[in-house]
Write a structure and sequence with these properties.
- Helix 10 packs across helix 11, helix 10 packs parallel to helix 17 and helix 13 runs parallel beside helix 14.
- Strand 13 and strand 14 form a beta hairpin.
- Among the domains are: about 170 residues, 2-Layer Sandwich (Aldehyde Oxidoreductase, domain 4), CATH 3.30.365; about 180 residues, Aldehyde Oxidoreductase, domain 3, CATH 3.90.1170.
- The longest helix has 28 residues.
- The radius of gyration is 27 Å and the shape is globular.
- The protein is α+β, with helices and mostly antiparallel strands and about 750 residues long.
- About 0% of the residues have low confidence.
- The structure holds dioxothiomolybdenum(VI) ion (MOS).
- The site of dioxothiomolybdenum(VI) ion has 15 residues, from loops.
- InterPro entries: Ald_Oxase/Xan_DH_a/b, Ald_Oxase/Xan_DH_a/b_sf, Ald_Oxase/xanthine_DH-like, AldOxase/xan_DH_MoCoBD1, AldOxase/xan_DH_MoCoBD2, AldOxase/xan_DH_Mopterin-bd_sf.
- It comes from Caldithrix abyssi DSM 13497.
- This is Aldehyde oxidase and xanthine dehydrogenase molybdopterin binding.
- Keywords: Molybdenum, Oxidoreductase.
- GO terms for molecular function: iron ion binding; oxidoreductase activity.
């Protein structure tokens, strides 16, 4: 049996025996193409505007849909009148709870539900000749609402007499989620210092460049969906199931995509509404959410109200860690837990956790780049710094003192752990010794400080993931996998893996992803699992291809395989009768027009924890007169297994740091508590970092391939990139001014 994590979920599976016969890459193996910082193979398509994103898909006779969303935080539909909207020229159809099929959604509601639980909940969907007409029709639908009392704050929602979203109360599943190891009370008694601290984090919205969008088309009882999604197979199974279609009748396609960050891991209501309308009018339908709808309705990182308690001995040994967290699920079930950092970062025998996920009248939370970990580390790593200070230790020394040599939840070894190396590399690069010995004592109003934060994430990926490889007679190759490229470089890294094995230029390789009809299964692109899951499948397919070619070449050249040399896509027979044969020629001689192999991702090793590790060091400047924090520099040092493409890896880390900086300093979904409505659902009032806010970034990778993990030894980087940034900045701010930032975002008012 093996275990792995996808997002916050633990997946258990029966291990399968690996079928590959070839030698796994050694950890420090010198590779020619893998690891190189090649630019994206699709770069030209993107910068020239020829890349077709879902947003750009235009079909003949395509109609456009738009959604009427509830303007109130909590309401019930008393009556709905669509007659005026229907009379508008160009309106083709309208769906409401009165005429739509009752399709269950979120386990607690329906596709169209007369009970509306947040501003943005779906009331009706109109299809028309143009998006403009559809939106106009949406505005002319008359709805009489019964206004219900609402609550938009998780802590208020837990109080007695708070407005209820569900009959069984506001606490999700009716009880907190709990974890315990050792004996917390005993651990606290053994401690010389006990600290209790509270940290709060805000709700932020994903805001990928491309908003959510689907184009749907029926051919008889077959449905094709172009979708901006992180998981084509997950959309396929959900849509097929709610529409009562066999999965084989549903095809989901996604070629190019402008990001997701977790907001596009699941099938959207909009996709199903468009499919119902398209069937009704017998035409293809496009439905695109605008940024306001995206900010309201399709996900956010939940807030957290965290109370931490820790016990430490005089020598710096952690004896106890406790966390109680409260987070807003929003109006429908969603995970808000943030305890994994506390559970898994340090060797601490006595740990106790209680996590409360609370319904409020606001958009539902979703997985958002390192769900729970960003919130959790913001609190934990500041507490760790304070504990170090209390026992008179350097924060880095304190972390090394409590270093977990084994995975603390299961007491099993890691496949690899090079966090110590990352700490030391990063500390040297930032100049750790430059940090203030006494915070806040620099002269003048502008003070600088240096802080750090560790990170841990899963990121090992796992099965199932498959890739088909086709060798054409001209020597060109196609890789076909049911994975997806969110913009992060999957097309390029997979071509690199095949190019490495087959020793042919990447230009000869085409990578086809994101099409459920042509590709074998791969999982959703989330949880930093894509590269570690799919790259081994591609390597497997390529090695099988090479093995086939070897035996064919031996037969054709009339020499044993052992006397064949392979280089640059050609076989050479050694000795007097030297001859050569390229793989395209060979395929022709084999009587094949297209030679095909299928590779698979082997199971993760039994009895090991697979994790990524890393640290970020931040250098900040705090103006104590204006309250402004400027992040001058971030040094990132990581253990991520093998690097597939250094440029793409650096891109991911840059993106994570900048997104983490936005979370730390600027971003916040603001709901007016008096009216229960979102006041900054646009990129004007919701501040994300600009180029001027971006610090100097320095990146170090201390790892080589993880030989125990897979045949490529690769781990994921997407989520590790963002996790430590906010805590590193907060600790640097403390080092500058001697004041703890206990709530996010760290706006000037909190500094002053
Ligand atoms: Mo997930 S939050 O899309 O990695």
């Amino acid at each position: 049996k093996s275990k792995y994590f996808f997002e916050e979920e633990e997946i258990e599976q029966l291990a399968e025996v690996s079928t590959h016969q070839y030698r796994p890459w050694e950890k420090n193996e010198k590779l020619k193409v893998v690891g190189k910082g090649l630019p994206r193979l699709d770069g030209y398509d993107k910068v020239s505007g020829s890349a077709v994103y879902t947003f750009d898909v235009i079909l003949p006779r395509m109609a456009h849909a738009a959604t009427l969303r509830c303007p109130h935080p909590h309401a019930r539909i008393k009556s709905i009148d669509t007659s005026e909207a229907e009379k508008l020229k160009g309106v083709l159809g309208i769906l409401t709870h009165e005429n739509a099929p009752r399709i269950e959604w979120y386990g607690r509601s329906f596709l169209f539900d007369p009970h509306l639980r947040y501003e943005g909940d779906e009331v009706a969907c109109v299809v028309a000749e143009s998006e403009r007409i559809a939106r106009q029709a949406v505005r002319s639908i008359k709805v009489e609402y019964e206004i219900l009392p609402f609550v938009v704050d998780a802590q208020q929602a837990l109080q007695k007499n708070a407005p209820q979203l569900y009959e069984d109360g506001n606490l999700m599943r009716g009880k907190p989620s709990k974890y315990e190891r050792g004996d917390l009370e005993k651990g606290l008694q053994e401690a010389d210092v006990v600290l209790e601290r509270r940290f709060d984090t805000q709700v932020v919205v994903h805001n990928p460049t491309e908003p959510h969008v689907s184009v749907v088309k029926w051919d008889g009882d077959h449905l094709t969906i172009w979708d901006s999604t992180q998981g084509v197979f997950s959309v396929r199974s959900r849509v097929a199931s709610v529409l009562g279609l066999p999965e084989s009748n549903v095809r989901v396609i996604k070629k190019y995509m402008g990001g997701g960050f977790g907001a596009k891991l699941e099938a959207g209501k909009y996709t199903v509404m468009a499919a119902l309308l398209a069937r009704q009018i017998g035409r293809p339908v496009r439905i695109a959410l605008d940024r306001r709808e995206m900010n309201l309705a399709v996900g956010n990182r939940p807030d957290s109200y965290q109370t931490l308690k820790a016990g430490v001995k005089k020598d710096g040994t952690l004896t106890a860690l406790y966390l109680k967290s409260i987070g807003s699920a929003g109006a429908y079930p969603a995970g808000t837990g943030c305890a994994w950092p506390l559970r898994s970062m340090y060797a601490c025998p006595n740990v106790k956790v209680e996590e409360y996920s609370v319904y409020i009248n606001a958009g539902r939370a979703r997985a958002y780049r390192a769900p729970g970990h960003v919130q959790g580390f913001f609190a934990l790593e500041q507490l760790i710094d304070e504990l170090a200070e209390k026992v008179g230790m350097d924060p880095l020394e304190f972390r090394l003192k409590n270093y977990a040599d084994k995975e603390p939840n299961w007491n099993i070894p890691y496949t690899t752990k090079l966090l110590k190396e990352a700490y030391l590399k990063g500390a040297k690069a930032i100049g750790w010794e430059r940090r203030n010995k006494t915070p806040g004592e620099q002269p003048g109003p502008v003070k600088t400080g240096i802080g750090m934060s560790s990170q841990i994430w899963w990121g090992g990926g796992g099965p199932p993931a498959y890739a088909n490889l086709k060798l054409n007679r001209d020597g060109s190759v196609q890789i076909i996998a049911g994975s997806q490229d969110l913009g992060t470089g999957t097309y390029t890294i997979l071509a690199q893996v095949a190019a490495e094995v087959l020793d042919i230029p990447v230009e000869k390789i085409e990578v086809i992803l994101g099409d459920t009809d042509v590709a074998p299964y791969c999982g959703s692109s989330g949880g930093s699992t894509t590269a570690p899951s799919v790259s081994p499948a591609v390597r497997d397919a390529a090695e099988q291809m090479k093995a086939k070619l070897f035996s064919a070449a031996a037969a054709h050249l009339g020499v044993p395989e052992s006397q064949l040399k392979y280089a640059g896509g050609k076989f050479y027979s050694a000795g007097e009768k030297s001859a050569s044969l390229d793989i395209g020629q060979l395929a022709r001689k084999m009587g094949e027009r297209v030679l095909v192999t299928t590779g698979r991702r082997e199971a993760n090793p039994e009895g090991y924890a697979v994790n990524t590790f890393g640290v970020q060091f931040a250098e900040v400047e705090v103006d104590t007169e204006t309250g402004k924090i400027r992040v001058k520099k971030i040094v990132a040092a990581y253990d991520l297994g093998r690097v597939l493409n250094r440029q793409m890896l650096d891109n991911q880390i840059h993106g994570g740091i900048i997104q983490g900086l936005g979370y730390a300093l600027f971003e916040e979904r603001l709901i007016d508590r008096n009216i229960g409505k979102l006041v900054n659902a646009n990129l004007h009032d919701y501040k994300i970092p600009t180029i001027k806010d971006t610090p100097e970034i320095e990146i170090y990778i201390v790892s080589e391939g993880d030989e125990k993990l897979s045949n490529t030894g690769v781990k994921g980087v997407g989520e590790p990139a963002i996790i430590p940034t906010p805590a590193a900045i907060a600790n640097a701010v403390y080092n500058a001014i001697g004041v703890r930032m206990t709530s996010l975002p760290m706006t000037p008012d909190k500094v002053l």
